[in-house]
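In this section we turn from sequence analysis to structure. A common task in structural bioinformatics is to predict how a protein folds when a small molecule is present, because the ligand can shape the pocket around it. The inputs are simple: the amino acid sequence and a SMILES string for the ligand, here adenosine-5'-triphosphate. Study the lines below before reading on.
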Amino acid sequence: MKTVLIIDDEDKLRSLLSRIIKAEGFEVLEASDCKSGLRQMENQDIDAVLCDVRLPDGNGVEMIGLLKAKNRLAEIVLLTANGNIGDGVQAIKNGAMDYIVKGDDNDKILPLLSRAVEKAHLEKKVRKLEAIVSTKFSFDSIIGESQVLKDVIGLAKKVSQTDTVVLLTGETGTGKEVFAQAIHHNGARAAKNFVALNCSAFGREMMESELFGDKQGAFTGAFRDKKGLLEEAHNGTLFLDEIGEMPLELQAKLLRVLETHEFIKVGDTRPTKSNFRLIAATNRDLKAESEQKKFRADLYFRLNVFQILLPPLRERVKDIALLVNFFLNHFAEQTNKKNLGYSKDFLKRLESYEWIGNIRELKNAIERAVIVSDQELQPESLPFNIQQSIPSKSHHLSAFSMASIEKLHIQKVLNYCHGNKAETARLLEIGIATLYRKIEEYGIQKQAH
Ligand SMILES: Nc1ncnc2c1ncn2[C@@H]1O[C@H](COP(=O)(O)OP(=O)(O)OP(=O)(O)O)[C@@H](O)[C@H]1O
């Protein structure tokens, strides 16, 4: 619907304009003074206003602010009298889209109104999409009620109000990208770009060109200047996923950019500036990697200003049911399956599994289960490895077994490291995933220090 409001106290002119505009397919509303114009603006969904300057109870130029206050997405076109260009200029300053000189510009009215309505519609669409995006990426969209998750969300909300560099750590699939988006969309940079680069997806040269951009002629095939992601992220956020995979040489360049917020495009001589906020993520232990010289220690310290460790799913078992409900509804809707539920055994199976791939693995498992089920989801609808895995807490050890010694030793080292699993795995010289599996398998409890 294209709705136009005409505010003019000259009855004849108003009804003539109304007929002409209606004939072009617009819905037309009429008002003869400021008061009734403002009332209609408040109660109707109006796209464009054609407003006279001299009105019995006010002035059209001054009305613009009031009309916009009622509906800021509507476009306003002022009808000025001949010789009063000043009114038109002031109207534009006050927020009108344009002005028309009565009598002289009659042929301009319809094209101008069409443009005004189109602009208002586009603006509405953009607002709607922005609202969808900000809900999709808000902290409220992060599912989970466990205390560990709440603590992490609390930290992330605090840092979202600053420009501090954030390092998100945690196993694969724990939601590092989800958190990066939420931090960006909850902060002052939300209206600007969120630009993501997965450092494991490119070789050194490609990554350099993606990050820094190219100057025309920098290499064969660089036909035009290309903006890099650093430039795209100006006033917004740059998210570097899997930063542990970034080649050492580029790490040095990144460090320099973080210090100066300036960089030189490939093939350029002059520096380019960018005011970006950096959020980096990794599932590696960057501290250990920097000690082994696999990651630059200076960059690690620069990134490690505000580290947020995302808990693995096995440490937030309470959230599994919530996530299952969420993913079940999502995939049931996608596959058009109504009234799908799940059995107690199904949930039990999920709650005792170790989830090395975390939420991503759970999401994929539910997708599969929804596809193969027509009624209640059962353990048999899960991927084979999840059906077959040994429930972790049912392991009872004899005091003389090797396993009981292993359990004791892990518990000791874990206590020594104050519960820090990455450090424990490093001292035990086993992978972090193995450590988690053993903690679950042996039912090792966290101890108070
Ligand atoms: N709390 C959550 N609620 C709902 N979905 C989530 C949540 N956390 C993560 N997800 C979903 O899980 C999947 C994995 O999340 P994401 O890509 O953010 O993890 P990641 O830690 O960045 O993984 P990787 O280290 O492999 O890049 C995505 O599909 C994401 O939408």
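The two ends are 67 Å apart (CA to CA). As an exercise, try to locate the residues that line the adenosine-5'-triphosphate site and compare them with your own expectations.
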